[in-house]
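Entry for the shared binder. Reason: the reviewer on the internal report wants the predicted structure included alongside the sequence.
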Amino acid sequence: MENLGAPLTATLAEFRDPNKLIARAGNRVFVILNQNEVIWYFVPKGSVDNVE
């Protein structure tokens, strides 16, 4: 099993409602999967230190 480097995952189908996913994630990183392959990492600004 591959370590994705993110505590949360969501499928491409779940991403049809991005506001729901963003609310669920809060300031945590999450990945979007398509057929078990990572297609996108979402990194909220609040999860990264010293971002201007």
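Summary line for the report: The chain has a mean pLDDT of 85.
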